Amino acid sequence: MSIAQASNEPPPAYYPGCSLDGLGSPYETSARLVLSRLGLSLDRIDDFNCCGATEVKHFSQDVSVALPARNLALARSMGRSQVVAACNGCVYSLARANHAVENDETRDRVNDLLTRGGSPAYDGGASVVHLLEFIYQRAGPEGVRAAVRRPLAGIVVAPYYGCLYSRPKCYTGVGRRPGSDNPEHPHFLDELLVACGARVVGDFSAKTICCGGGHALSDLEVSVAFSAGILHEAQRAGADVVATICPLGQVNIENHLDRIRGTYGDELVRPVAYFTQLMSLAFGSSVREARLGDNFTRPDRFFRARGFP
Amino acid sequence: MPIVERSLVEVDRLEHLELDGVDVSGDWNTFLRPRVLTDLDSKIVDWVKRQPFGDTISLCWQCGACTASCCMHTDYGMPEFNPRFFIYLAQVGDEKQLRLHSAALWRCISCNKCVERCPKGVKVEEVVHAIGRYLSATGAAPESPADRFDRAYTDNLLEHGILDEAALYRTYERGEGRKTSLGDLLRKGLLLLRTGRLRTGPIAHRTRRWAKMRTVLRARLEEDVHAVSPDQPKAPASLGGSR
What we know:
Chain A is an alpha/beta fold and 309 residues long. Chain A is built from 14 helices and eight strands.
């Protein structure tokens, strides 16, 4: 079973960023499983650099645009017009660079930096989408349903989108591009998880709140409160598992686990897993293949107890 | 235009809320005559306009949609974090009042709800960060932990093109004077190694042919950090350079 690529055009470029390569590597492994099961493919941008997230822009506009623009330029030189990123922070800063180079002066200054630094120049033309949106647009809930071998029956999931997946629409275009998600009330993740046979909690109010990840180290008070808030809302809604689409959200919760346990108690903590890990489990991969044991919240124990191999 | 958040006005300033013999404290039943502010100081707003997307500050019409959306203001419940008010204070150049809020100003976590919802297209998140950085860059307020983290992050990233999270963690925590016990570091490191989530090997995870790019970007960064404030002699601590 496979879903053919939309046309004969080459697959979009894939930008891993710093996290999918390191701390978020279970995300990448499971995303590969999901994409191959759905018959989708992506071409990794070779020799990428980090996007600068939301930190570099506080010092210099040109540098904060040049860093992501270099990756977009590499995608263009591969002949691709679409870039897929799996991290909300990457989607944000790549899309922000696209917005910034619409200004002629900024584009000239950034291209001057890029060419002097030995990179191709970037004149726009590479649209940016999140991996979730890519899977939804290409396979859709029907395609996912057809690929399921072992439905996640009886598993209650809280879909956590986080902040920069859809926001702000003036950069990401979510809600403006045809076929994109709803920026205020996103539903793509809900639908894909339902297609996998899971029950998705309806009133998960923490869906699009921030995890505080931007200040994960510099403002513990706030980032612990927000990551605990996500778990608290999941608990209130009766979810067994929290599904994330952003490595920063995942890592922020994991990094604060001890503090959350200490302040709010053990019962708040529940398994947190990337949506691709849950999907690949439904597509027939084992708990080990989906690398669920590599998350610090240990979703592997939960799923083994529910009879998943 | 001037709408000052009454709950945020410091009590000791209430006595001075009389302008040209007119009570402007906003107390119920006080007659407010129209007045013109003539002593506006544009240096903060000029500075903000030179920052990334900072020129959008002039679009603000003080509706407060940003503050109503703000996750620090509402979800976290920090009333003194009020982006609309910060923008107002920057526009009128009230540095003294901004300084009183310097402990709150840096705490934006970039969730971008404000940018999403601003009806005028102000890039509020970037503007508020610029206002916060104005205080630390000119020495009006001490550098915030977030400023220090952003610096450590930028420095780390520009070194090899790809972030070295372990080194960033060590550098930042050491800089903050936080003591992480060796046992704790080992435990975290081993956990990451065991789960295959730590980048290993020094060569595989660096951007190739990065040296030229590093030189170019560091030079521009240095320029931008120092060019922000020509009339202010105090420059923020140096970014980048060899380690």
